[in-house]
């Protein structure tokens, strides 16, 4: 029995009789010759058959092909298999409702999503998830190198993490429970154990709006670290992490440069800039509008040559109760967003770490600390100054690849309307 | 400002004035001297103070300490900080309901779980999760090296994955949905895209029983690969993966040897062995009882010197409908379990890959294929022979560390009774 050779390895076997296996990507029958392109996980291999008809297998049928590796400049990749013998490994495939062999995917997003298990086979679509996988590998290896510990925390929780809104309820053995909107509370508690933790896992938001940037489930890249001076230490770790992610995908797709220090602008200064240079005057608003994020991103490219921009110091009013205030500027916080190509990619900041500060923050917002008892308890037992950040994986890949909808970078999206496949 | 030195790095700074930071692990006041042991993520550092009282900080209070690194054979690790200045970074800590500084954790499992965010700080408990993290890193790096792609699939699904039982229901925008019991259907579909995929993620089982080996949420290490001859190719990849996991934790805890080829016994032969050598006669039973798994594990140690044992060929009757039958032994399957130290650690096997076989398998079980339409559709579009496996991460760590309850290796377990912290 000869073992399988991958498409990418054909050049190492010129003149040899080998076995390849994969999907019939494209079949073209000419008068005296049939070209069959076979797709495997590494690429495409052309098979040339002189005996017309013997390879009458529909596209997407899975085949094993024995043949002789022959150099041919016209063949994709420069090599092809000649004198082939075909053995089908699947039933003849039913044609998918789009052509997987064309350079681009012509079908609309809804059609692609309806038929995701087959549509994702398109090399261009598939490549996006190679970028996703490499990004996560870069995220992890960077944080591993910085002394972080990977954790796995509950996705079923007894109360809403961030707010009561947009949370999925579950029947938990007859009790009411919820799907976790973030690992926020867990990762903070785990700073008390490991000092530095990260988690890559699903988070759930019952988003009632049908937008291009929100999903009911997405993959959150979360990190949290203790013994920080303030949010700037968190930003430095985030910069390293993004650089590690970019390095990890650099072999697959073109990547942006990550400056040694990502430029940073305070929220108040950002509003001043927008007021001075655009027709808008956002001063006094507690948050940035999407159009303002886009303008600031363009400004950072013009001013610093950077596609990344930190906006720091968001008003306390619009940040969660666990946000640490800026000790020098009342009303502003030790928080940040990282903008990338016009969109908020990461949110983070320093958190409160003293129990008394939590009580005061909750009371100031009219919330009952009793509802957060489990979360707050850890702060009575000694917690260091700490902070962290969260990045949406699908959003990262979409921005990196210039795709306007996060559904293009989610294998099987879940949203208001979509629960299958 | 001097930067922080970690406990593990003190030997490199003898004679220098340094800053350390961490938790007051243990404080002992003698007549003329106070010993304060500070714990950080790398270990313990002893601080010696001659001016009694100045370090009157309760255990678990977070502190920064400046001091001079001094060699002292009596000190834990051989070095200590002298002439210290203490700066508390947290409020004085409320003492936890157990002593974190004792060599072992004296509290019972329920007490530990009730106070997990603080209990996990105990170095012995914490170490278990370093083993968990390293295991997952070994799982991934092995599969990355074998050409696998990491994926992230939906945890919210429209129907139960494996069976209707033990599934959590959710209210999904007014529709009924469920928490995924496994990524089984997704990983099979993704074999059609990437050939080789893995996922590390939460799975959910509404286990109505309170046992030492089941949880409502656990972390599943899933892999699936195409172009296999049969289940033996899957077992070979699993053996590599387990060896990679063992290598990854070898620096932290003692590890078992993974044989170059893990011994394997067919289910029918395993029953014969048990009938011949014990008072039990399980022949005719469709599955192995826990006592039989224990006996087989001991037998593998005696016979092969291996703590790992594959049992292959489980009867079709007890395996899921997607299981590939053994073409040579009707009634038996191309499936396997991997036993480790008396317990089933991994389940896997070859799956059906032809659409017609799926229809026949479901009809033979009296199930309506219409209920599996999304899943089955992919098999009409060309799927290669494939198989895979799933391992419970918490169970792996528990077995490896000789712990009898998976709750000891879960940060924040979820079960019939426990939804917090």
UniProtKB/TrEMBL annotation, chains A, B:
Coiled coil: none annotated. Residues 184-187 are annotated as: Aspartate. It comes from the Bacteria. One of its GO terms (molecular function) is aspartate-tRNA(Asn) ligase activity. Keywords: Aminoacyl-tRNA synthetase, ATP-binding, Cytoplasm, Ligase, Nucleotide-binding, Protein biosynthesis. It is found in: Cytoplasm. InterPro entries: Aa-tRNA-synt_II (IPR004364), aa-tRNA-synth_II (IPR006195), aa-tRNA-synth_II/BPL/LPL (IPR045864), Asp-tRNA_synthase_2 (IPR004523), Asp/Asn-tRNA-synth_IIb (IPR002312), NA-bd_OB-fold (IPR012340), NA-bd_OB_tRNA (IPR004365). It catalyses: tRNA(Asx) + L-aspartate + ATP = L-aspartyl-tRNA(Asx) + AMP + diphosphate. Aspartyl-tRNA synthetase with relaxed tRNA specificity since it is able to aspartylate not only its cognate tRNA(Asp) but also tRNA(Asn). Reaction proceeds in two steps: L-aspartate is first activated by ATP to form Asp-AMP and then transferred to the acceptor end of tRNA(Asp/Asn). Belongs to the class-II aminoacyl-tRNA synthetase family. Type 2 subfamily. PANTHER family: ASPARTATE--TRNA LIGASE, CYTOPLASMIC (PTHR43450:SF1), ASPARTYL-TRNA SYNTHETASE (PTHR43450). This is Aspartate--tRNA(Asp/Asn) ligase. It comes from Actinophytocola gossypii. The lineage of its organism: Bacteria, Bacillati, Actinomycetota, Actinomycetes, Pseudonocardiales.
């Amino acid at each position: 029995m000869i073992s399988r050779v991958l498409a990418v390895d054909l050049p190492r076997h010129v003149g040899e009789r080998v076995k390849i296996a994969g999907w019939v990507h494209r079949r073209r029958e000419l008068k005296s010759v049939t070209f069959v392109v076979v797709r495997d996980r590494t690429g495409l291999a052309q098979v040339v058959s002189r005996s017309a008809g013997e390879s009458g297998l529909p596209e997407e049928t899975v085949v094993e092909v024995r043949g002789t590796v022959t150099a041919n400049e016209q063949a994709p990749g420069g090599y092809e298999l000649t004198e082939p013998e075909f053995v089908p490994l699947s039933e003849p495939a039913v044609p998918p409702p789009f052509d997987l062999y064309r350079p681009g995917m012509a079908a609309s997003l809804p059609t692609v999503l309806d038929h995701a298990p087959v549509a994702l086979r398109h090399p261009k679509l598939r490549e996006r998830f190679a970028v996703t996988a490499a990004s996560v590998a870069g995220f992890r290896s960077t944080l591993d190198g910085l002394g972080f510990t990977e954790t796995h925390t509950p996705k079923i929780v007894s109360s809403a993490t961030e707010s009561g809104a947009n949370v999925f309820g579950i029947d938990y053995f007859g009790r009411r429970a919820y799907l976790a909107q973030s690992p926020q509370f867990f990762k903070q508690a785990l700073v008390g154990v490991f000092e530095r933790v990260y988690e890559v896992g699903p988070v759930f938001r019952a988003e009632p709006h049908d937008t291009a940037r929100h999903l009911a489930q997405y993959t959150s890249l979360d990190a949290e670290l203790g013994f920080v001076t303030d949010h700037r230490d968190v930003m430095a770790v985030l910069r390293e992490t993004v650089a590690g992610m970019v390095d990890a995908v650099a072999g697959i797709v073109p990547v942006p440069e990550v400056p040694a220090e990502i430029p940073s602008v305070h929220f108040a200064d950002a509003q001043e800039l927008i007021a001075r240079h655009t027709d808008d005057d956002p001063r006094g608003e507690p948050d940035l509008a999407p159009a303002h994020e886009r303008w600031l991103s363009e400004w950072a490219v013009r001013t610093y040559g950077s596609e990344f921009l930190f906006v720091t110091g968001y008003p306390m009013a619009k940040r969660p109760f666990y946000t640490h205030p800026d000790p020098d500027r009342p009303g502003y916080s030790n928080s940040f967003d990282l903008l990338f190509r016009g969109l908020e990619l990461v949110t983070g900041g320093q958190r409160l770490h003293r129990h008394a500060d939590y009580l005061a923050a909750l009371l100031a917002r009219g919330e009952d600390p009793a509802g957060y008892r489990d979360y707050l308890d850890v702060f009575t037992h000694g917690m260091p100054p700490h902070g962290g950040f969260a990045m949406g994986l699908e959003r990262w890949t979409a921005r990196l690849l210039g795709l306007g909808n996060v559904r293009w970078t989610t294998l099987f999206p879940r949203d208001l309307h979509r629960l299958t496949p």
